[in-house]
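Much of our argument rests on the idea that a fold can be written as discrete symbols. Part of our work consisted of pairing the sequence of a single chain with a tokenised description of its backbone. The amino acid sequence and the backbone structure tokens for this protein are reproduced below.
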Amino acid sequence: MSSYQPYSYGGGFEPPPFPVVRLRGLPFNCTDIDIFKFFAGLDIVDVLLVNKNGRFSGEAFVLFAGSMQVEFALQRDRQNMGRRYVEVFRCKRQDYYHAVAAEVNYEGIYDNDFHGTPPPSRAKRFNDKDQMEIHIACRPDGKATGEAYVEFASVEEAKRAMCKDKMTIGSRYVELFPSTPDEARRAESRSRQ
């Protein structure tokens, strides 16, 4: 009897890697449209331009429809955009999630009385990454569905976040809906099937 099991469900299954790349060295006047042109022919799901203290940092994250798209994107490493060469490299899912969370934090979860910075009493609690979890829903093939679930440490923080409904993250329009932990768990389990 052969030990070969073509349809085995043993511990050998690994989901495809999260289809995101990081860009560095972008021109400071770069827009998401420039990035779409740079990756012409590839299926981009999201572009997140990274800002530091309200200014574009020259870095971005690009989420693709699948892991094969990432392989094609990596072939464009050190190609020029304008007069600058752009580094394209792999990154982890959590790097992208943290960049999204930082963008949401910076763009004003807090009142503008603090000029874009959180009030001192809430800063540590909300910025503590252990207090907020982001789950981006993916199809079984690893492609993002366009939905995400965010778990907040308190009801008050969740209510504050809901004021961001119908606003943008980077160049993306976002709708927010209250959900339950069960809905997030179901979405997460569907992405593993």
Q: What stands out?
A: The first strand starts at residue 20 and ends at 24. Residues 108-130 have pLDDT under 50 and may be disordered. The CA atoms of residues 54 and 106 lie 8 Å apart.
